[in-house]
Amino acid sequence: MSKFTGKRLNGITPYVAGEQPQDKQYIKLNTNESPFPPSPFAQRLARESAGDMLLYPDPEYSTLCNIAAEKLSVKASEILFTNGSDEALNFAFIAFCGYDTPAVFPDITYGFYPVFAALNGVPKKVIPLKDDFTIDVKDYFNAGGTVFIANPNAPTGIALKKSDIEKILINNPENVVVIDEAYVDFGAESCVSLINKYDNLIITQTFSKSRSMAGARLGLAIANESLINDLKTVKFSTNPYNVSRMSAAAGIGAITDEEYFKTNCAAIIKTRAAFTDGLKSLGFTVLPSTANFVFAKNGNLSGEKLYSELKTRGILVRYFNIPRIKDFVRITIGDNKDMEKTLGAISEILKVIK
Ligand code: PMP
Prior knowledge:
The chain has helices at about 40-50, 60-70, 85-95, 110-120, 160-170, 225-240, 245-255, 260-280, 305-310, 335-354; strands at about 25-30, 80, 105, 125, 145-150, 175-180, 200-205, 220-225, 285, 295, 315, 330. Helix 2 (about 60-70) runs parallel beside helix 7 (about 245-255). The longest helix is centred in the last third of the chain and has 24 residues, at about 260-280. It has two domains: about 20-35 and about 260-354, Alpha-Beta Complex (Aspartate Aminotransferase, domain 1), CATH 3.90.1150; about 40-255, Aspartate Aminotransferase, domain 2 (3-Layer(aba) Sandwich), CATH 3.40.640.10. Strand 9 (about 285) and strand 10 form a beta hairpin. Strands 2-8-7-6-5-3-4 form a seven-stranded mixed sheet, with helices on both faces. It has a three-stranded antiparallel sheet with strand order 9-10-12. The protein is built from ten helices and twelve strands. Bound molecules: 4'-deoxy-4'-aminopyridoxal-5'-phosphate (PMP). 4'-deoxy-4'-aminopyridoxal-5'-phosphate (PMP) binds next to helix 3. 4'-deoxy-4'-aminopyridoxal-5'-phosphate binds next to helix 3.
């Protein structure tokens, strides 16, 4: 760190993103991207909007909000589009946490939550998951701060039922509860329909996973108008034009092309089931996933060893050097061919290390 950094940056450990290697072609199963290209219609609208780059975009992204609102059965004023859902989450940390309002989240969850807390000078209250990596909802009753829960959770893939999230909402009348639905389209229950039932609920979603647009950086927050206005105060105080014209245009195409989205989600869910069976037959414990990845371990080799053996075979997965989960690897669900190759490589690795 330079001698010029302000206090706020002291001791900050930035989020460690998954590797994005540029040196060679890997089967890339480490950052939960989609194996499918973005919808052709989304691509077309993005291309067509390129000529308008000379102008700033509409900072309200009205067309995009209207189309998303119709799809989600909410009002356009109940949506805020952001530069990836990471930005929506950061806005929520800025708006709803403070030195006397901690951020409350599980010990094993999305690694950006502690980073946003640190960067914004927010204390954190970390609640351990149960031994089976599930959340005990009672642990979050009257949480004493702003709750952040990824549903399904990452990297475990395990989801809470909507009725369990309702219990958390009911038992936090004084706290905002942020439900991060980055992976919800792969089999979990969304809580979007609850935004007007509970005045303390914020949902974040992303186009990075189920809509194959990680490179476009498009996410959103969905909540009642009052909470969305709070988030807008942060946005208009930092970056009013936070989504590029081309990403906003692609977003319109991706939402419109519902069939393409549904087909891809169904394919991932099917491949996930086959891959999970394959891993289990190789002696793995696989946590029940409703995401586009699985979290798995095998008693015969550590997560780090499996990660590095796969990497030498041209397959990238994610391993976390965190005591509770160091035996696990997180493997993104790609297409059938890539997952078959991955199973083949894992089976070979298990034979070699014996
Ligand atoms: N939440 C969770 C749980 C994630 O895993 C990710 C992806 N790393 C995000 C949010 C953010 O995704 P994006 O900014 O691409 O929308």
